[in-house]
Amino acid sequence: MTAPALVLTDSHAHVDGPEFDADRDQVLARARAAGVRRIVVIGAVGEPASAERAVALAERDPDVFATVATHPHDAGKMTADWWAVHERLATHPRVVAIGETGLDYYYDHSARDAQADAFRRFVALARQVGKPVVCHVRDAHAEARAILAEEGAAEVGGVIHCFTGTPDDAAAYVAMGFHVSFSGIVTYKNAQPIRDAARRVPLDRILVETDCPYLAPVPVRGRRNEPAYVVHTAAVVAREAGIELAALAAATVANTARIFRFPPADPA
Questions:
Q1: Residue 182 lies in a domain
Q2: What is the mean pLDDT of residues 46-54?
Q3: How many domains, the chain?
Q4: 86-142, pLDDT tens digit by residue?
């Protein structure tokens, strides 16, 4: 079989979810056919069953890795039992990060104090197990950076996923030692500030992601997103960074492997 022209990594996907129950194997096959050889599945949607699903998928597929946490939307629902699941799974060898955790002051589905408390606790867990933290931050970048600094998150590093801040926000995260991940939003017509931010992030700190099934990039916007579509996001980020797509793809694969501490895939 002919190898794909590009090798890519989807650094943030939710293919464990019910949106993919009918055709998950086909979705993963299409990802591989498109050159997506590593997928980080985020076990952080709703109850900890999401974390369990993500880990189970990573156990059965050598190209899939998992993260565990509770999304800030659900931070106010957390119980001692939820925490116990995350603490147990955090040390699993297929779990490469703690997340997504953080602050979402746009939707405020959970009280801000609850979000901040959970964020601090998940950063502490990341430090405890020596794994990076995956951060969801919306309309709360200054507050998130303060928590990351106060809790010593730079000790383990991490990713600001689905970046939606300003170019200055991106530069500030990079200065703290974090990576910045761009989703399909960067392809949208009204997302020029995010494209501007892509120019401010050094090549060795850029990641790309789908956040599937959400945020399908142009030219497939409106469809259910899936890992194979990450190439469209990578193409726009490469254009904004002023480099060839192949160079951007190679850098993001290496960056994702480095921050999550897994080996790059064999491109063959």
A1: yes
A2: 97
A3: 1
A4: 999 999 999 999 999 999 999 999 999 999 999 999 999 999 999 999 999 999 999
Please state, in angstroms and rounded to a whole number, the distance separating the CA atoms of residues 177 and 187. Answer: 25
Range of the domain at 165: 8-260
Separation between Cα atoms, residue 202 and residue 265, nearest integer Å: 23
**Residue 267 covered by a domain:** no
Please report, for residues 21, 132, 216, the alpha-carbon distance to residue 256 in angstroms, rounded to integers and kept in the order given: 26, 11, 20
What is the C-alpha to C-alpha distance for residues 104 and 120, in angstroms, rounded to an integer?
A: 14
Q: How buried is residue 111: exposed, middle or buried, by Cβ count under 10 Å (0-12/13-18/19+)?
A: exposed
- Structure pTM? 0.96
User: What stretches of the chain adopt beta strand conformation (E)?
Assistant: 8-13, 36-43, 64-68, 95-104, 133-138, 158-160, 179-182, 206-208
Let me know if 203 is exposed, middle or buried by CB neighbors in 10 A (0-12, 13-18, 19+): middle
Q: 34: domain CATH number?
A: 3.20.20.140
pLDDT tens figures, 213-240: 999 999 999 999 999 999 999 999 999 9
Of 130, 133, 135, give the one whose Cα is nearest residue 115.
Answer: 135
In the block, residue with structure tokens 């501007």: 196
Task: Give the distance from CA 186 to its chain's centroid.
Answer: 15
Answer whether 96's CB lies under 8 Å from 68's CB. no
Residue 129 domain-assigned? yes
List the structure tokens of 204. Answer: 């060795």
- Please check whether residue 54 lies inside any domain of the structure: yes
Rg (CA), the chain: 17
Q: Which amino acid is at 182?
A: F
Give residue 79's region: left, alpha or beta (phi > 0; psi -120 to 50). Answer: beta
